[in-house]
Design brief:
Elements: H1 2-16, H2 20-44, H3 62-85, E1 95-96, E2 112-116, H4 119-125, E3 134-139, H5 144-147, E4 155-159, E5 162-163, H6 167-174, E6 182-188, E7 193-199
Antiparallel strand pairs: 1-2, 2-3, 3-4, 4-5, 4-6, 6-7
Helix pairs in contact: 1-2, 1-3, 2-3
């Protein structure tokens, strides 16, 4: 059961991260641990011939134990990196959102939570120094913004052709052109590219 939990957590980490290298790393590390455990347990139950492979965290042998701890440490690092990149971990600045306690629908894009970029958040989200804007840390899957292509981890550079580097500037820009869709200029760290999105108003 413990090994199933480890494999499940590793595969979940691979699904959460947006970087191809981190996806492959997480899947590879998880496969190593899962394959070792399966071969040993299958050998004990006579399903396959026994081999000299050690059972992770159980079989004796210092080098095997150290190697397994390194694998787990790398998985934790990838998971931490993915979580911080989308703002899931604490120690973040103030947000603008339409969820409870946040601004009204007139002040923010429905279903979207953003945070002002700081040096710490920029490093966590892997945003270059020459990119200024607001980081999208949460977005409802069924929202208009999500349907138009906005993603968690995107950086909103402009709203209605106005540059936004603070939550106040973001709200002010959203108040412009209320009879037209919201035009966003967005930086996407995963592809290191800039795109334009038009979000229909409610």
């Amino acid at each position: 059961m413990s090994y199933l939990l480890i494999v499940g957590a590793g595969l979940r980490t691979a699904l959460r991260t947006e970087r191809d290298f981190e996806k492959l790393l997480a899947v590879g590390l998880t496969t190593i641990i899962g394959a070792q455990a399966f071969i040993i347990m299958a050998g004990v139950t006579k399903l396959v011939p026994l081999t000299g492979i050690t059972l992770p965290f159980v079989s004796s042998g210092g080098s095997s134990l150290v190697s397994n701890y390194i694998l787990i440490a790398l998985l934790i690092r990838v998971s931490d990196s993915a979580a911080r990149r989308v703002g899931e971990l604490p120690d973040q600045p103030t947000t603008a959102s339409t969820r409870g306690g946040g601004p009204t629908d007139e002040d923010a894009i429905e279903g979207v939570s953003v945070r002002a970029l700081t040096d710490q958040l920029r490093a966590r989200a892997d945003v270059p120094d020459d990119v200024d804007g607001l980081l999208v840390v949460e977005i409802d899957a069924g929202s208009r913004a999500a349907r138009e292509g906005l993603r968690r981890g995107d950086v909103i550079l402009e709203v209605n052709t106005r540059q936004v580097t603070s939550v106040d500037a973001y709200r002010d820009a959203l108040g412009q052109g209320e009879d037209r869709p919201i035009l966003l200029r967005v930086y996407r760290p995963a592809s290191d590219g800039r795109i334009f999105l038009a979000i229909p108003r409610g």
